Amino acid sequence: MYSRSEKFRGITQILFYLLLLLWLVYALLPLYWIITTAFKPKAETQFWPPTLIPSRITLASFVELLTNRIFSFRPYLNTIIIASGSLGITLFLSSLAGYGFSRFRFPLRRALLLSLILIRLLPTLIMIIPFFRLFLTYGLYNTYLGLILVDGITMAPFCTWLMFGYFESIPFDLEEAALLDGCSFLRSLWHVVLPLAVPGMAAVAIFSFLHAWNEFTNAVVLTSSQAIRPYTVILYRMVSDRGFVKWDLLSAGSFIALVPVITAFIVFQRYFLTGLTQGALKT
Which end of the chain is more exposed for a tag (fewer CB within 10 A), N or C? Predict the structure, then answer.
């Protein structure tokens, strides 16, 4: 016979797994919808009620999308350029800042750390007008460099916290041993600390890349040329002013955008999970 506590524990586990299953369906259903719609015939994407399984598989939506004069492959190339540049800026700034906050003690250190999080909590729309004025003043409007800077800088505060927590998990004794063996400060940082911080840097790289890859608001306000704009802005044009949605092209474009993100996560998931768990230390 099972005791009352064992029965209660069994019911709790069943409810827990049921909630996980519901959340899994909720999370995967939009992905399933995008993937199946991308491979449906154009007429079938407008059916009501919608079909869950395509009547036949076709690549017509992808061909039309990538040969379209407005879309083509250029928006994805723009996004790759912007996301890669933003990743480099975020990784450079957050690694140096996180290391400085972790290893050096200076006045207002805690206040500055807290201010980084407060800055990250500011809504994008509050900062968009100052960014717009600055971009016009310094000639950054409608340029790759402008989007790279704004995406990299806005993500740097959160990633600095992540790297700070990861550097805190690396014993300072290792650096001291390297210094005693004759290494300079920069050599100990390059040969001892940074190799150990690779998982944390991988997590930062994924976060910053995803942020820039999916960014829309800054791109639509700070650019006007179709030759510069990323795929997120161009995909928005699949929704007409009258509310008619080109589901076939929208789904095909979204599916292409998912491929590099999912691939990057699969390749770097080990570093990503390690960087999150070891970076989540109390300070």
Answer: N
